[in-house]
Amino acid sequence: MHFAYPPRKGSNPPPFQPRSSKVPILRPSRLRTILLLVLTVIGCFWFLSGPKKETPYKEHAPSGNPPVVILTVVDPTKYSESYLKSITDNREEYAAKHGYETMTVKLFDYKTNGAPQSWARIIAVRHALSLYPDAKYIWLLDQNAYIMEYSLSLEEQLLDPTKLEGLMIKDQSIVPPDSIIKTFALLKGKNTAFILSQDETGLVTNSFFIKNGDWAKFFIETWLDPLYQSYNFQKAERHALEHIVQWHPTILSKLALVPQRTIASYARNKEDNSYRDGDFVALLVDCTPTGPDSCERQSEHYLQQLRYKSSAANRKS
């Protein structure tokens, strides 16, 4: 069998032809890629060098009208109408003298979804912050307390940044006597947003001030986290607050501790934090709704002092 041989190359190859100097035509796919790269570079350059637009979000700055809202949460199911009227009258008289507002609400107006009803006080603070967006401060004052000195405004004795800075207890254990978490040593009065005091066992939540603003809303929402409400702390919202403050530097960094007798003297005849004549607030911490140690019975002593001071002020005027 014979196989055909492949044809041989000619012995006379074609003459050499040099490459054309013309630029070859690019394929359409390459043109698209180059165009996209050019547009991307131009877009990045415009984004980085173009005019900056302001963010659409701006924190609401309260105008300070009113300067302070005095918030009191009352329980008409346990206390008499006459006693609660003495409480509301006390707030309204002081507020009218200094241009503040009062907000009195009922404890059971707020649902706590199975948590102790005392949590309603913190829910009421959230309500006050939304109801008075231009108030500078919300002052939560317990229903079993009386403002004892009408002559001085809150700005004069506490809220002015310079005054507050002179009162602040710095580098102090949050939970006495030896908690390793302490108040900030370098905190300035102008940078505080949460003012309260401390007794011999921990933070006092019967009387505290919150500066209105976005931080206040963040703080209250943190405090009201359902996990804390359902955790079954021994003293409910008070122990929850102590936990939050010690574990959240963002909250601790705005906290100012002041001497207890500045805003929360205990109405009892013992210990250094007991009420003395001239103190601003008397807290009836040991009183009961009824019986020989009832709040109404204990209140008579302080109401008598207020009536005497009012009469003396009228005589001077």
From TrEMBL:
<keyword id="KW-0472">Membrane</keyword>
<keyword id="KW-1133">Transmembrane helix</keyword>
<dbReference type="InterPro" id="IPR008630">
    <property type="entry name" value="Glyco_trans_34"/>
</dbReference>
<keyword id="KW-0812">Transmembrane</keyword>
<feature type="transmembrane region" description="Helical">
    <location>
        <begin position="31"/>
        <end position="48"/>
    </location>
</feature>
<dbReference type="GO" id="GO:0006487">
    <property type="term" value="P:protein N-linked glycosylation"/>
</dbReference>
<protein>
    <submittedName>
        <fullName>Uncharacterized protein</fullName>
    </submittedName>
</protein>
<dbReference type="GO" id="GO:0000136">
    <property type="term" value="C:mannan polymerase complex"/>
</dbReference>
<keyword id="KW-0328">Glycosyltransferase</keyword>
<keyword id="KW-0808">Transferase</keyword>
<dbReference type="GO" id="GO:0000009">
    <property type="term" value="F:alpha-1,6-mannosyltransferase activity"/>
</dbReference>
<dbReference type="Pfam" id="PF05637">
    <property type="entry name" value="Glyco_transf_34"/>
</dbReference>
<comment type="similarity">
    <text>Belongs to the glycosyltransferase 34 family.</text>
</comment>
<dbReference type="InterPro" id="IPR029044">
    <property type="entry name" value="Nucleotide-diphossugar_trans"/>
</dbReference>
<feature type="region of interest" description="Disordered">
    <location>
        <begin position="1"/>
        <end position="22"/>
    </location>
</feature>
